[in-house]
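FAQ: What does the model actually see?

It sees only this:
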Amino acid sequence: MDWIHLSSHFFHSWTNTLIEQFKSIMTKVKGTAIITTRDYVKREYPTRYTQWLASLPADSRILLEGVIDSSSWYDIEKAYIIPSQKVIDLFFDGNMEKGSKEMGVNSAAHALKGVYKAFLILSTPQFLMTKASKIFTTYFEPTEIVLSEKGRKHLAVRILKFPMINEIVEYRIAGWMNKALEMASCKELVFERRASLAKGDEFTEFAFEWK
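And it is asked to produce this:
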């Protein structure tokens, strides 16, 4: 009997350890970021909004149709990545880079309005991206994003930690940053993705140059 109890205790301890390890590599997304995808489709493709919802797997569709708590955390795959992929499939003919960037651009254009415009004008691009990097870590958990390079007319942002990241997420973030820099009066902006966690590199890095 003691052996059975010991084995049972070991099994439960081992199982709990695995669960905690699994949680540590799962990325969660804040409800605010999920709402941006839904609002994007409603705003840009109102006549096809129902079609987009119908294209989603049941668990994603139920989530997007319901009330999303902007301050709660959700599974990134079903709440953010899959809905974004369906946007790309339906409205961008499967062009992942174009569709992902456009969602990021659109999100920034609508988020950085009103009082934020003054902040964009008064801030340097380098300060803006330092703040933006910190903001993104509040939308995705666990993540680590830093400004890795800066100069008078250029900068680079590096994603050091982001479990479960894929290229859709990378390009959505890049699109948001690109638009924010444009709104901060960076002219003739050029973007390059130098490295990608999603493609097996040690980090993701976005480089921006302007005139």
